[in-house]
Amino acid sequence: MSKRSVRRIALIVLGFSVLVYLNNSSWTARPRAVRPWLLAHRGLAQTFHTEGLTNETCTARRIDPPEHPYLENTIPSMAAAFAAGADVVELDIQPTRDGWWAVFHDWTLDCRTDGQGVTREHTLAELKALDIGYGYTADNGKTYPFRGKGIGLLPTLPEVLARFPERAFLIHIKSNDPAEGRLLARYLKTLPPPRRARLAVYGGDQPIAALQRGLPELRVMSRASLIRSLLSYMALGWTGYVPAACRDTEIHLPVKFAHWLWGWPNRFLERMAAANTRVIVVAGSGEFSEGFDTPESLKQLPPDYWGGIWTNRIDCIAPLFRTGKRGMAGGRSASR
C-alpha cells in the first residue's frame, strides 16, 4: 500500500473519530439550568450500616441511632420525604392473601414486626394489626425505640395513591412471579391515565415483563431490561441513535458505569429525555439500593448533572440543592 493510501486512510479514521467525539461530547449539549430531581428510597426511613449486608440480613436490627421518628414505607414517612424535597418516593409492595397490595418491604414479618411467617400468606387485616416498628434496635437489642409506635401504620397501595394523588411514585415488586405483574396491571388499569403517568414500576424480570405486556405505556425496569438497554446503547449510541430498548422506559444507572455511556452526562440525558426515558443514578455499583446519602457522595456526579438521584437520606440531600451547596460537589463532565 502506498504512503498516499495510508495517509488517506489515516485522515478518514481521524475525521471519523472527531465526528464521533463531537457527537458524544457532553459540553456540546445545550446546558439546562435545572436541578436534579430526587428519589427518596422508601420515603424518609431509618438508616443502617451495610457492612456484611446480605439478602437475608435483618436491617431493622442494625439501624443507626434514630435521627427522626419515621418508619419506611409508611404514609407519614412519605409525607415527610415530600416535605423535605423529594420529587419521587420509592415504595415496596407485597400481595396479601385476600387480594390487596400491602406496602411493606420484607418477604417475612419476623424481622421488623411482632408477627411471624411469610408476608403474602397473611390477610390485610392481619398485617394492619401488626406493630411494624417492633423489631428496630440501634444497640443490639438493649432498647427498641419504635416498639409500640408502628401499630396500624402499614398502608395499602390504594391508600398511598389516594393520600398523594398528585405525587410521583416508583413501585417495587418484591418477587419474580409473573402473576404479580398481571395482578398489578389489572389494578393500575383502574386508575386514570394521568395518574398512571406519574408512576413507574421495577422488580423481577418475569413480573415486569408481564406488567409491560398488560400496560405497554407504563415506565418499567428489571435487571434484564436494564442490561438490554445499556448494551444496546453502548453498541449504537455513538451514532446518536437511541435503540428501542432505551425508549419509554426507566434506567437505574450505577454511577460506577455511567462514564462508559456515550455522551455522559448531558448528551446522554438529552437523548433519554427525548426518548421519554427516565434516568436515575444510584451510588456505587447499585448493590443493595446504594444511594447518594451525604454531601461527599455527591462528588461522584458531574456538577451539571440534571437527571434523577437515588437517596436514602432525602432529609440530608434535598437541602443541598435548595441552598446551592450542591455546586461544591462533583468533578468534570466527561463523555465516553
From TrEMBL:
Q: Which GO terms describe its biological process?
A: lipid metabolic process
Pfam families documented for this protein? GDPD
Q: Name one GO molecular function term.
A: phosphoric diester hydrolase activity
Q: Where is the GP-PDE domain?
A: 56-321
InterPro entries for the chain:
GP_PDE_dom, PLC-like_Pdiesterase_TIM-brl
Under which name does UniProt file this protein? Glycerophosphoryl diester phosphodiesterase
